[in-house]
Amino acid sequence: KECHDRLPRDQRRSFALLNGHVPFGVHAIFEQSSKYITLVREPADRAVSNFYYLLETPAEPLFYPHLKDMTFRDYVASDLCLDNSQVRALSGCTELGPQWDGSRPLRAAPVGPEHLEAAKRNIERHFLAAAPLECFTDLLVLLRLIFDWPLKAIKFTRRNVTKTRPPLLQIPIEVRLMISEKFRLDRELYD
After folding, report:
1. Which residues, other chains included, contact 87 with Cβ-Cβ below 8 Å and sequence gap of 6+?
2. Which of 18, 32, 52, 63 is the most exposed place for a label (fewest CB within 10 A)?
């Protein structure tokens, strides 16, 4: 927000797209009306992907020095694996964000059914589209129709493909059950 506020007023009005891992609520800094588009991931798949991504990313040990000594089960049981992270991001409730002690997140506020309802309300009111990751191509086709994009303008490159990640079915059932409980509200949002 501070960077946006330092821009001249005419530049603040010129934003057409902001992309990346953007939390809900960023629309409040823009003077023009805004809509969100989001992809949600199956919670267990997201947890597996996130853990192995963190292990493979060279900068991450600086932020999570103890991660290299963890098993996936340890990670799921730890505070590093933030529960119901998609509901946290889409609810717009800033108190749900993790607080950091400099090198690791401290325990974040608990997520409840009211936050899931807030996320659903936000999607209904502020989102042009919300889709599961598996429907990414369908979402692109829809956006192409809405915005009249030429087909050649649609390019997709998979990034952050985790090479060492095991298939979800190779994760022990007890760990999948831990994930199921930890991401219960994310699962409901995804469904």
Report:
1. 111, 115, 116, 119, 185, 186, 189
2. 32
